[in-house]
Amino acid sequence: MATLGELERTVMDLLWATPGAMTANSLRDALALVPAGATVGKELAVTTVLTVLSRLEKKGLVERERDTRPHRYRAITSREDHTAELMHEVLVTAPDREAVLARFIGSVSESEARALRKLLGGS
Amino acid sequence: MLLAAHFLATLAVVLAWPAPIALSRAGWPSRSPFTAMILWQAIALAGGLSMIGAMLVWGLEPLGDNLLEAMGALWATIVNNQPADTLGLVHVFALSAASLLGAHLVFTLLLTYVRIRGQRRRHRDMLNLLSSPAADNPATLVISHPSPVAYCLPGGARSVTVLSDGLMGLLTDEELDAVLIHERAHLHQRHHLLLWAFAAWRSALPWLPTSQLAQRAVNELIEMLADDEALRQVDKPVLVRAIAIVATGSAPGAGTHGDSGLADDSTRSTITREAGEQSTVHRLRRLLEPLPPLSAVQTSAALAASALLLAAPTALLVAPGFFG
Question: How far is A65 from chain B (nearest CA, A)?
């Protein structure tokens, strides 16, 4: 049995791969087709899929189209945008790489340059 | 008591200003980062202790000859609701300031902890959706991003190291190993706890030179400690190439050798990029032209100074009677 975290992940993968919106039923059918090796069980109840979807909705990852019945769900932002945002958290304080190089080269002494060439296997 | 208060106040001023400035300018910390780390912790702890202690001892001075007696007298005064004739307004002010500062420090520490934990949980949630475990190691996650990124996310048994596929494309297997060992050293040596404590210290007293310098120094020292750990397992040229590529890599967009685990975004971003650049340069420099580590005598002296820094204010607080 897959954990909720694994299910969330698989559902998001499906929604990211789908251009339009999906109903819980069509998601369940798609989940059953997830290739072997994946941890998703074959027979998932639609209620389980709905639970996962509402968790994802709460996390701000999925939005629900309420004007149709049954409701249709789709990913709010693309996988790439989420990754970029996540990496921004890590990169926000990162040194500017060009500046690191400039600063290093600007301040490198003759003996350091020799040591660097030696280490990097140059002549 | 009064002498003790003056001594504590002097110590607090020295530890808030000249001592951290001298240590941040010294060259030896890159030779023995571990010793330097101990000294920074002693400076921060003793600094806080003597700041609070100075006000406490001074405020209690009229009530008794030593701290315990004076505390007892203060307690009796408050509980019995007696008029405190001997306690002037300035003394009450000093006592209030001491309690407020103490509470402020503890509260900031807790608040920082809660904030960091929340950030980590959100980050871990998103990682769960966006990354996939490396084939050979489930504790290493790979995320699809062009910038060369490597960082670790502490969380006890669920600690993970995250690599971007942009980084994996730039590095050879050996260099990748160096990066992984470096990041895991951050986790094993619990560097996130140091970052937490010093981030809290910084956000509690942001205007104090010591808290800024200490945070910057600690950020640099943990990188050096992790580099040293990596050096035990990979050859130096490999590590130097890995650092140089991660820090100056040719992939498009901004990139980094990541920090250790999102210590705290909001306070980290106030450490300027310039500090990060300087820190990378220092790391490369000490690898390229290694200086011998401090001698046993020098190390002992630094450790003894750390012990003394902690012992002096504690002794003055516990037994100020001995000193006056």
Answer: 22
**Residues of chain B below pLDDT 70:** 84, 248-274, 319-324
**B284 and B240 Cβ atoms separated by less than 8 Å:** yes
Residues A119 and B3: their CA atoms lie apart, in Å, by: 57
In whole angstroms, what is the distance from residue A62 CA to residue A55 CA?
A: 9
Fold of A4-79: Arc Repressor Mutant, subunit A (1.10.10)
Q: Which of residues 153-212 of B touch A (CB under 8 A)?
A: 164
**A101 interface with B at CB cutoff 8 Å:** yes
Is B316 in contact with B323 (CB distance < 8 Å)? Answer: yes
Length of chain A: 123
Which of helix, strand or coil describes residue B201?
Answer: helix
Counting every residue written for chain B, the total comes to 324
Q: Are B203 and B10 in contact (CB under 8 A)?
A: no
- pLDDT tens profile B126-161: 999 999 999 888 899 999 988 888 889 998 888 999
Q: Would you state the structure tokens that stand for residue B72, as one six-digit string?
A: 């007892």
Helix (H, G, I), strand (E, B) or coil at B133: strand
Alpha helix locations (H) across B131-264?
165-170, 173-188, 191-204, 209-231, 236-248
For chain A, the domains span 4-79, 94-123
Contact B245, B238 (CB under 8 A): no
Given CB atoms, is A88 within the 8 Å cutoff of chain B?
A: no
- Give the model confidence (pLDDT) of A85-113 as tens digits: 898 888 765 555 566 666 666 667 777 77
- How close does chain A come to B36, measured CA to CA in Å? 23
Strand partners, B316: none
Q: pLDDT digit string (tens) for B82-107?
A: 776 778 889 999 999 999 999 999 99
Are residues B149 and B258 in contact, defined by beta-carbon separation less than 8 angstroms? yes
Name residues whose C-beta falls within 8 Å of residue A47's C-beta, 6 or more positions apart in sequence: none
**Distance, in angstroms, between B283 CA and closest chain A CA?**
11
Distance CA B57, CA B52 (A): 9
A90·B130 Cβ contact <8 A? no
Nearest CA in chain A to B163: A87
